[in-house]
Every structure is written in structure tokens, then in C-alpha cells.
Write a structure and sequence with these properties.
Helices cover 28% and strands 21% of the residues. It is an alpha+beta fold. Helix 1 packs across helix 7 and helix 6 packs across helix 7. Bound molecules: zinc ion. Zinc ion binds next to loops.
Length: 273
């Protein structure tokens, strides 16, 4: 599932193809994805110029001239491709935008087999989906102090708290597991006990794992944005996620999993306390 680094990777790939260009044609394949799409979406996108692309948590924001902003979420299985030639419409291609105004036209294809993704249009400063979102983990308002305040008196496990977008934005299962390993904290630990040095360690680990993933995403990006090619995600160098039964790189213990709130948590029972 695309998390903050993957969405940021997509944003960076889309900048040269979309920013300061206009949408000359928009194909919308169906009236809904996870939720209904805005009425007449294709018509409303056609002719609009795209401003500076930004990201908030796992959402992409594409400002359009005339004051509206397009909001995109990649859901569980969403991906974006950039083509230099008009592509055939695939079964799960739900939106195709033809971009003009650059050196050559390009086509942006949003594909989502499981349809947990979403596209919306909104006017004004913010969208209701973004209103209660917690701080950006790579931004200045995220700190050990802000994190321990947000976790204060929470009795649930820290792993589940990290997936809560109101506590911190953009983290999903992979990076929650990896950050807890980096901080030496058990996914089972009660969230309310994360303060002081533990909060410092966790904030540093979250930042480091996300930053490394973005840098690696950027690396694979250069290789992968070929005409018609899918935007490549970070080939993850993971410490614990997906490594059940394998040896911990730090201590040789066997990596274990537990289920928490319906999601698998991967951890090292020796390194994480
Ligand atoms: Zn270990």
C-alpha cells in the first residue's frame, strides 16, 4: 500500500509532466472509486492549468486554475503511469489525463485494481479529509514533544497509534514496523509510555526511515519513468517488515509477527522493548 514515501515519489515524478501545463483531455472510466467521484469530473478538469503539486500525508494535491484543487489518494493498489504516447485504456485505468503545454504532450494514467483510491475536487484552503490530520513527520511541527503529547494517556499499543493519521500523517504498516525497529521499541508497548528519550528515538527513526525511502524511491524513479512505464517505488531495504522467520540483521534473533488491529506487526523480540 502506498505510504508517504511512495506518494512523495509519485508527486516528484508528476511535477515535470503536470506542473504549469494544462489538461487538454480527461477520460474518467467510472462514476466511483472508493467513494463517488465529483459529477462531470472529466468536463471540469478539461482545459484547466495545473499549479504546484503538493502532498499531505498520503494525499496528493493538484491545484487547478480557477481556484479548485484536485485531491488524489492511491488507496491500497493505486498507481500512476506517465506515457509519451496516447495509451490504450486498460481494465483498471480509471482516469487518463492528456497534458499539453510542455515540449510534447504526455498522458497521466491512474490505475487502481482494488478501487480503494479516490479522486475529489474542492475549493478553498483545505478538504474535510485533511482537516484533522496530524503533523507531517518530515515537517517542523513534528517533534518528540508533540508526539508524546499526542500519545499521552493512550492505552493502546504504539504500533496501532502510529497508523492513526491524526497522530502523525502518512505512515502505514510498513514504515510503522520499520520505525519501531529503528527506535528499539516493541510494537506492543503502550502508546502512553512513549515520552522523553523514547519519543526522541521514535521521532528520529520515523524521519530516517521515511527519508531513506524517499531517496531510494527517487533513485528507482530515474530508472523507471520510461514512456509507458510505471513509476517505480522504493525497492525497500527492510529490517523487519515481511521478514518473519528470518534473522535480525542486528542480533540474529528470529523476526516474529503478531496481529494488531487486523494488521501484521513484524518485530525483533530482542532488539525491540
Ligand atoms: Zn534484533
Amino acid at each position: 500500500m502506498p505510504e508517504l514515501p511512495e506518494v512523495e515519489t509519485v508527486r516528484r515524478a508528476l511535477v515535470p509532466a503536470m506542473e504549469d501545463r494544462h489538461i487538454s483531455d480527461a477520460f474518467i472510466g467510472r462514476p466511483d472509486l472508493r467513494w463517488p467521484l465529483p459529477p462531470r469530473l472529466g468536463e471540469r478538469l478539461t482545459g484547466r492549468r495545473v499549479g504546484p503539486l503538493s502532498r499531505r500525508g498520503k494525499f496528493l494535491l493538484l491545484p487547478l486554475d480557477g481556484g479548485e484543487t484536485m485531491l488524489m489518494h492511491l488507496g491500497m493498489s493505486g498507481s500512476v503511469r506517465i506515457h509519451d504516447q496516447r495509451p490504450e485504456t486498460g481494465l483498471h485505468d480509471h482516469m487518463i489525463l492528456e497534458m499539453q503545454g510542455g515540449i510534447r504532450p504526455q498522458w497521466i494514467v491512474f490505475n487502481d485494481p482494488r478501487r480503494f483510491g479516490w479522486i475529489d475536487l474542492f475549493e478553498g484552503e483545505t478538504h474535510p479529509m485533511l482537516a484533522d490530520m496530524g503533523p507531517e513527520p518530515l515537517g517542523n511541527s513534528f517533534s518528540a514533544a508533540s508526539l508524546s503529547t499526542a500519545l499521552d494517556r493512550r492505552t493502546g499499543p504504539i504500533k496501532t497509534a502510529l497508523l492513526n493519521q491524526q497522530i502523525v500523517a502518512g505512515i502505514g504498516n510498513i514504515y510503522a514496523c520499520e520505525a519501531l525497529f529503528g527506535a528499539g521499541l516493541s510494537p506492543r508497548r503502550r502508546a502512553g509510555t512513549i515520552c522523553g528519550g523514547r519519543a526522541e528515538r521514535l521521532v528520529a527513526a520515523i524521519r530516517s526511515v521515511l527519508q531513506r525511502a524517499i531517496e531510494d524511491g527517487g533513485t528507482s524513479l530515474r530508472d523507471h519513468v520510461q514512456p509507458g512505464g510505471e513509476i517505480g517505488y522504493f525497492v525497500q531495504r527492510l529490517s523487519v517488515y515481511g521478514r518473519e522467520g528470518e534473522a535480525c540483521h542486528q542480533c540474529d534473533s528470529v523476526i516474529k509477527t503478531i496481529t494488531q488491529s487486523g494488521r501484521s506487526s513484524f518485530y525483533c523480540p530482542t532488539c525491540q522493548r
